[in-house]
Amino acid sequence: MSGEGPTPDAAPPAEELAKLSVAADAAPADAAEPAAGEDQLSDRQRKKLEAKRLKEEKRKAREAARKAREGGNIPIVSFNSAELPQDMFGDLERVQSRGHTQRKWKRVSDLNASLAGETVWVRGRVHTVRGKGKLAFIVLRQSFSTVQVVAAVPEEDAEPTGVTKEMVKYIGKLPRESIVDICATVAPCEVASCSQGDVELQAQRVYCSSRALATPPFTVEDASRSEKEIEEARARGEEMNSVSQSIRLDNRTIDLRAPANVAIMRVVSGICQLWRETLSAHGFTEIHTPKIIGGSSEGGAEVFRLDYFGSKACLAQSPQLYKQMAVLADLERVFEIAPVFRAENAQTHRHLCEFIGLDMEMAFYDHYHEVLEVLEQLFLSIFQGLEERYANELKIISQQYPFEPLKYPKDGKVLRLTFAEAIALLKENGIEANPLEDIGTEHEKKIGELVRVKYDTDFYTIDKFPLAARPFYTMPDPNNQDYSNSYDIFIRGEEVCSGAQRIHDPEFLAARATEHGIDVETLQSYVDAFKYGSFPHAGGGVGLERVAMLFLGVHNVRRTSMFPRDPTRLFP
């Protein structure tokens, strides 16, 4: 017969032996010897005596734990069933899924004055703690929500609450970032320093389920300060710790605990969710394309090369070729959310060597602007969705990284300039630019400033880029061979989406690849896909982290990447 339960005469668990050993040390040497005449007792009497003996041993163990506690040692509390432990505080045994405690948990974010008088269980991190005498305070942090916890020893003539001087002492010594379980009563209270500003928790029980065993290189409190807060403190002659970007990224797990960073990661997730929802509602199919490929997907030398069982391979610069092939496979409308790899040795605020690409491709009937319209409306849906669904996250982010809300057309009419019109806008303001070359970062930013002043928007499209500035698979403009049926979409003067109509004629496609110095043999399966009838199609690629950075105005793409990869960073 198989099973996970112990046999009736199995050895007791190690933790039970440990408890009994404490009692054994305190008991007389002959305590375990049978009393005179005990061997003459009936089974019932013997069981009764054994139960009495065990009860006494447990009492002595509790007394030993109390004395140890008063001497500065920390009680270890077992909590694996619905029954509450006798200890009102202490370190919990390692959680190994031994059983269910039946505790009813509350999220810190759900605590408010309407719960006044209720007893709740919460779990969170010790953000800050202080304790002295008969009073201790914890600011408990759960994700980006915080609440004040107070443990007060009642006066002698007051009703007992379970809080003792020993508990206050225990709380005061809890290391920051430790994880604690707290049973408390919700009480109305104004606490301006916490997100739950209209209540506090009056502690009854406090258990530490995971102690922070080392001092972090910086506190989450330090990591949560705004630059303005630090500058103002220094102007007053006060010392206030700041944390450099390098130190933050070296210890990213700690850095990500800062409420603003938690909120940023949720917004990044929200962008993906809205991208997926919106395109799925428009008949798109989500696809998953290979990231190890036999040749460059974009052309150029900016690829990570690797050995593939004796053959040459590289990491995909985009899903470009495969999403086009998916359209030709009669999926017609496709999208992907997946990593993209660029071997660009660029140390800028907006470049990463690995980022998440939001890609889409679709067949059209007459004009590639059918696709561009879908892309523009997709962005508007994302902006509106973020403002509606993530208002609390945006508020929290703005407290550390103040930003002006994005200006975009609420009526759905997106500003669309041609490349020539954008160059003309620069020239009108005394800035020279070559109309047949791509615009650089500084010119992009300047156009963004001019567009905001002239058109009162931070979101716009530039259409008809020079052909020489685009990848080999881009369709030339039928009216001017110097230009192409391609477009970029901008937020706050920086490009976030690049797209175009693709060449769908196999001979023309092969010729254009050769012009760009690409060995057509490495793309033969891609070119061959167009030989069996192909829809006219277009699409675009978007950098997730860059969209989040610009929407939130946080000025560096590393702040919107969970674990960024740039030319100098491969860990953690």
Report on this structure.
The structure is a single chain. The chain is α+β, with helices and mostly antiparallel strands and 572 residues long. Strand 16 and strand 17 form a beta hairpin. The longest helix has 28 residues. The radius of gyration is 33 Å and the shape is elongated.
Largest sheet: spatial strand order: 8-12-13-20-19-18-15-14
Number of strands: 20
* Residues in helices, as a percent range: 25-40%
Structural class: alpha+beta
Approximately how much beta-strand content do the residues carry?
Answer: 15-25%
Count of helices?
16
Shape: elongated
Described by strand count, sense and barrel closure, the largest sheet is:
8 strands, mixed
- Radius of gyration, in angstroms, nearest whole number: 33 Å
Average per-residue pLDDT, rounded, comes to 89
Multimerization status: single chain
Distance between the termini: 48 Å
Low-confidence segments, given as residue ranges, are 1-36
Outline of the structure:
By secondary structure, this protein is α+β, with helices and mostly antiparallel strands. Helix content is 33%, strand content 22%.
